[in-house]
Amino acid sequence: MAIVHFPLKLTARRMLAPTVAHLSFERADGAPLDFIPGQFVQVHFHYADGTATKRSYSLATIHDHAMAPGEAVEIAVSYVSGGAATALFEGLDIGGTIDASGPYGRFCLMPADANQRYLLIGTGTGVTPYRAMLPQLEQLIAQRGIRVVLLFGARTPVELLYGDEFRAFADKHPEHFRFVPCFSRELPAADSAQAHADVRHGYVQQFLEEFTPDAAGDIAYLCGNPNMVDACFESLKAAGLPVPQIRREKYVSSK
């Protein structure tokens, strides 16, 4: 089957962290880009020598309905010094277009899931699909009382992408959603909004055991740094979680 390409027009840009941008687009061809939270789009472009290349970006759009034409298509992009994709996005003016295809991927919540809890584990822009899943998680909380733990790894408080949104969701659903930021280098100031009981100092994989993975009731999602994904995958297997209950997606910062 031929890949269908479409133009995305940049409508807004804001920095989530010193090297991560949240970009909002709309389809310039007037069609909707409906997707299942957890899926990604591919952006197609060329290196300076004319060689074709592409990059994959999870959709960050808060998605709770069928998407209509003109609705926002949101992604988070890590800027890498000297990177060709970074140059593409940094040089893109509001109203400028890029070439995209998709959506793709199966890193999604499955309708047949009957688990009691989701363990969502992410680092960096690997947390993006979890933002898109929030409306689905809210529905599952209402429908069957699921519990969710989001373990999110960042180096410093300023790199905690979408942290305010996850914290607000946890405050709204205190019995069902725990947001556990894990800072590897620097903890938030004691008097800041990010300083609360669930903050941890270290890497996400160090704290998995604390949440007692349970083969009978848990499904885990791993997204982000490949080393983290591999380490958590092995830890979850060792804790008895069957491989089909561990869903993975690795993020590599590509130049």
UniProtKB/TrEMBL annotation:
It comes from the Bacteria. Its cofactor is [2Fe-2S] cluster. Residues 3-110 form the FAD-binding FR-type domain. It catalyses: 2 reduced [2Fe-2S]-[ferredoxin] + NADP(+) + H(+) = 2 oxidized [2Fe-2S]-[ferredoxin] + NADPH. Its EC number is 1.18.1.2. GO terms for molecular function: ferredoxin-NADP+ reductase activity; nucleotide binding. Keywords: Nucleotide-binding. It is an enzyme of class 1 (oxidoreductase). Belongs to the ferredoxin--NADP reductase type 1 family. This is ferredoxin--NADP(+) reductase. It comes from Lysobacter dokdonensis DS-58.
